[in-house]
Amino acid sequence: MDADKIKQFFILHGEKFVVGIVVLAAAWMVYAGLQMPNMLDEVQPERLATDANTVRSSIDEDHNEQILPERKPQFDILAETARKRTPVDSTAYKMPHLLERKTIDTSIRRKDPVLHPPMELRVDSHIASIAMLSRSGDYALKDLEGAEALEVVEQEKPRPRRGGRRRGAGMDEMMGMDMGMDMGMGMDAGMYGEDMGMGMDMGMMAGGMGTMSATAAGRRFNAKNNFGFIATPKDSMKPVPTGAWFISGTAVIPHQAMAESFREALQEADGYLPMRDQPLYFNYEVQRADVSNKPVEELTDADWVVRYTREKNVLEAAKLWAGYAKEVVPEEYRDLNVTAYIPPILLVDYTDFVTHPLIPMISRREEQMKAREEMMKEQEFGIDDLELAGPGASGMPGMDMGMDMGMDMGMDMQMDMGMGMGGMGAYGGMAMVEEDPVEYKLMRFYDFASDKDPQTPRPGRKYVYRIRLAVVDPNFPANALQQPKISTLSGEVYQRVSKLMEAAEADNDRKGHFQRWSEWSEPSPSISLPTFNDYFAGPVEAPRTKVLTVEGKKVEYSPDPPTAKAVNFSYNTAYWTVMPIWMESITPGSVLSYEGPAELVDPIDLVVKKVEDAKVTSQTTVIDLEGGRVLPMTGDSELGEPGMMLLYDENGSLKVTGEVNDQEMYRIYSFAEERGL
User: Fold this and answer.
1) pTM for this one?
2) H/E element, 346
3) DSSP for residue 325
4) N or C: which terminal CB in the chain sees fewer CB atoms within 10 Å?
């Protein structure tokens, strides 16, 4: 057969071979299965169940006699039982600030606690950039061209001092130093930081701005000198700078006195509930009056207009501002319901106008820890001073104090949480009140100028402010479930509360009725909106002087006036940012105005921009300059007196500003580091 016939044979009969192989395999498996033994002949289900039950029964039988030896007690069980039933002395385990049930005298009725009004109201005025929300993120300053790098100023090396001059110039220089010190000590150190010089259209000198590296997009302002809010996008909104021309105010609540008045009125009365019967601050209201043409003593209620409330601050922070600035006051000295959020002020330091002299800047815990650290530094310990720890010892000095403080803080936190929930969760007559309340809590507010507000503060006008606060009425609380029984109220309180109940029932809501308001604070000192310029004094260069003898008296004479450097810290209302102007040659009689090219700081990305046609209009005039003369000191280098400037501003006020107090701001906004100064 040839190959083609063999191939054709397998194509026609291949499947028959496959079927035959499958049939043979199946037949073999059937045969092999028939040869297997029958399992039922060897294993029966009934026998398996019987064997399992037998094993289980043998396991369940008690085998203790075969395994465990006989045990005999080695002690008197009855005596030991009696000993263990003896109460343990709890003195070593006693904890401070336990919840102790008070004995209530049902004959004492609930009174209305005295609400102390806010006190020590302080006001200040400002103009600054503030971060607001925008969908586009576009603003005029963003499109300006970046500023070029500044030239480095070469400074003269200090001249060596000659011995004869050191010896001979003492009296004259000492007299000059005394004059400078007298001039400075007679003025308020902070006066020149509040009332700025007037006017401005745009402005700055060709010299001042930024402290950074030069890039293709321009210089950048040194981030370490950015003392304000750092703006970041919020959801789909972007921050943009806008102007904030406003008056701010701070006051304090006499919280300790308030807590004491609540205790006196409610703690011993029937129905006392600690979480409800304590000062729960809820709201505040600020009013303003114009005193430009009327003294404070002649003001009537019709002269006062409402300018700020808790609700307005919350809406600004949530809807308008691009966030709010970092809080600087410790939590225990503020309350969210009466301490307004800090606006997102850009570039400048906002600490001064959001704090108060009566409010500490560190918490009581930090203050105590700091005091203890100082005490520990002063004490020297030796091996003989160490003692073995007794029962209940904490393991390290001062730990007991820390534990007490920690528990107090925990109690305060619980109270704060309860306050936020309307006082819910308090337990019957358990005394859970603030044992050691802080003396004061902070209140703050703002009055922003706006063209859209018919009551906006206006430049050139003088205003006074007053403020009051509201607490949750302990005798008519927001939570109806905490309403004290009518039988526990005194007669006067019952008459007041019954009217509130009728009003709430008519409105079908307690909202607007449970707030109890304090009296108004005393009016603040008068204040006006600030001008658009402030001034930071720099060094003064004293002229050469001659000593002439006139009719037997020595008189100093100088043909040239002294010169000084300063920064006109101007605010540009066209671009809503600062525009510092470095003035290098100021003399007595100089008017601090400027026209020409200028630089501005973008408060969002800190890029320094430039404008060519800036104009700053100021009527502030330099009256006199002091300082710059060589101090009579030993050594090879000369040390000059610090510079001081006497200014006459647009408001007709005399101000003294000095190099010592202004040094930081002068160096930042004259870009001293960038200039190599």
Assistant:
1) 0.66
2) strand 345-346
3) P
4) N
